[in-house]
Amino acid sequence: MNKKNGLSDLSVILKPLAMFLVLLVIWVIFHIVTDGTFLSVRNISNLFRQMAVVGVLSIGMTICLIGGNFDLSVASIAGFTGAVCAVLVAKFSVNPLLAIGAAVLTGALIGFWNGVWIAYAGVPAFIVTLGSQLIFKGCLLLICNGQSIAVRDELFLTLGQGYMPILLGTVVCVAGAGIYIVLDIRRMKQQKKLHVIESIGGTDIARWAMTAVIVGVFIMAMNCYKGIPIPVFVLLLLVVGFSFLLGKTKFGRHVYAIGGNARSARLSGINGARVTLMIFSLVGMLSGIAGVLTTTRLAAATQNAALGMELDAIAASVIGGVSLAGGSGKIANSILGALVMASLTNGMSLLDINSDIQFIVRGLILIIAVWFDVRMRKDNG
User: Fold this and answer.
1) Whose CA is closest to 335, among 59, 140, 91, 101?
2) Residues of the chain with pLDDT under 70
3) Which residue from 204, 212, 229, 220 is spatially nearest to 176, judged by alpha carbons?
4) Other C-beta atoms within 10 Å of 205: how many?
5) Which three-class secondary structure state does DSSP give residue 73?
């Protein structure tokens, strides 16, 4: 038993470490072939800004996959809600904050719509979300009517193009990392008192050290340019908030339960339909946030906004270790997967590789990631 627990604890360190090594290899290769452009401080800042949208979508996709479902409509919802936000600000002069709130609420309502069909009407998630993908892609085309909707409001654009003050961004990130480590230490001590674990081991110390190093390197890299981009800061807040939701609340435990074994969860008294409805509502809300970030970064809503990003979100989640069978996965690891996908896209763009080749590469990565997940489940099963 101790040996099994030790191997399990070791895998907690090895999985994210393996992703870091893959990411490092990708970065080194692109740095060499782009003559040093890829790892310039400006491009690293742009890379994280670009990653923020896929990162937000991957949070929603991770929650959905853990709960035993998936959502093909997230990119279309993001494009549509981004266009709604742009229309409100550019054509109706609505206060940017109210427009953002309306866009996020619209996303949540669309997610609620999906959830009702899936949880209460019994229609498979694949059919419902594929239908919603087509519906809201069509709505986006109707709104844009073949043209981009430019937005010039300064406050609105700051969300997508601005930076956090260096001191504030540094303090918040350091404080967040410190709180995480302190809470994790307290959790380990409580488990030791309850004899769940024998002692705090080297893998735990290594995890805390790795967290401190990652945060430190991230802060230094961002501050070498202009500070932490606001979309990245928003992403970090969402990661912390939803990691807490999944890991520390009854709702989170129910998500893992119905994803792991829906029948057993139902027999234990969990209302699976209500949990599924909440999951899709949250996914829709996150898609709305992603749509706002896309529009503010581009300073316009376009008919191709967020095109294909649902596949990037799925790939990021699977690369991050989320099982397509449901019941397992972590949001933080999915963000690493999103960074891998964004790095590939950014590097190929710097090399002027055509978008058709980029789609081929992303599709291959998705297939390989799913194949790896299937192999892991067979080996463990």
Assistant:
1) 59
2) 1-16, 196-197, 377-381
3) 212
4) 11
5) coil
Q: What share of the chain is helix, strand, coil (3-state, %, to 5)?
A: 80, 0, 20
- Per the structure block, which two tokens stand in for 280? 């899709």
Give Cα separations from 262 to 28, 64, 71, 243 (angstroms): 43, 14, 18, 22
Comparing CA positions, the residue from 66, 67, 69, 51 lying closest to residue 335 is 51
DSSP for 128-150, please give it: HHHHHHHHHHHHHHHHHTTS-EE
Q: Which of 198, 217, 91 is nearest to 151 (CA)?
A: 91
CA separation (Å) from 220 to 45, 95, 163, 214, 289? 11, 35, 14, 10, 27
Cβ density class 286-325: b for 16+ within 10 Å, e for less: bbbbbbbbbbbbbbbbbbebbbebbbbbbbbbbbbbbbbe
pLDDT for the residue numbered 180: 80
Q: Among 215, 276, 231, which residue's Cα sits nearest to residue 251?
A: 276
Residues 144, 150, 155, 157, Cα dihedral to 10°: 90
**pLDDT value at position 4?**
44
**Token duo for residue 45:** 């800042």
In this predicted structure, what is the pLDDT of residue 236? 92
3-state secondary structure of 300: strand
Query: What is the per-residue DSSP string for 32-66?
Result: HHTTT-TTSHHHHHHHHHHHHHHHHHHHHHHHHHH
Q: Amino acid identity, residue 11?
A: S
The structure tokens listed for 21 are 């090594």
Q: What is the DSSP string of 325-336?
A: TSS---HHHHHH
